Amino acid sequence: MDLKDKKLLYELDKNSRQSSAQISKNIRLNKNTTNFRINKLVKENYISGFYPSIDISKLGFFAFRVYFKFVNTNSLKERAILETLKSNKIVGVIAELESVYDIMFMAIVEDIYKFDNFWRVFKEKYRKYFWQDKISVMTKVIHL
């Protein structure tokens, strides 16, 4: 790995969504050379993968983040609740937190009534096991 590769990695780390033409300009290389070097860094495992940042609102979906804290429960019941969330098709992300809340999950739906139905049924079944629930609607996600 030479200095140009290091500059290339720096530019990708700084803003991985910039075009290869912009990266080429910043590191003073030809666009084709920059693309060749990126592919070489992938083959050599300096770059292990790529992931998309998708604006689901442009696909016609709504995203809801739900946070809650467990109460009056044990680890077996908590696992059962998490399995219920995992098995539901509208739940896309589940995270265990170490903060004010214990769990965060993201529900992705085509219309808000689907989420409302899901949340009402979920609360009827598990409300006695959590409190301090908070729901936020995601309008835009910015990755830094």
Shape: elongated
End-to-end distance: 26 Å
Strand tally is 4
CATH superfamily of the largest domain: Lrp/AsnC effector binding domain/regulation of amino acid metabolism (RAM) domain
Whole-number radius of gyration? Answer: 21 Å
Helix content: 40-55%
Short description:
The protein has 144 residues and is of the alpha+beta class. It has helices at 3-14, 20-27, 31-43, 75-87, 112-126, and strands at 62-70, 91-96, 103-109, 130-138.
What features would you describe in this structure?
By secondary structure, this protein is an alpha+beta fold. The chain has 2 domains: 3-43, Arc Repressor Mutant, subunit A (Orthogonal Bundle); 56-138, 2-Layer Sandwich (Alpha-Beta Plaits). 42% of the residues lie in helices and 22% in strands. The protein has a 4-stranded antiparallel sheet with strand order 2-3-1-4, covered by helices on one side. A hairpin with a 6-residue loop joins strand 2 (91-96) and strand 3. Helix 2 (20-27) packs across helix 3. The two termini are 26 Å apart. The mean pLDDT is 91.
Key traits:
144 residues; alpha+beta; Arc Repressor Mutant, subunit A; Alpha-Beta Plaits; 2 domains; four-stranded antiparallel beta sheet; 4 strands; 42% helix; 22% strand
How is the secondary structure organized here?
Elements: H1 3-14, H2 20-27, H3 31-43, E1 62-70, H4 75-87, E2 91-96, E3 103-109, H5 112-126, E4 130-138
Helix pairs in contact: 1-2, 2-3
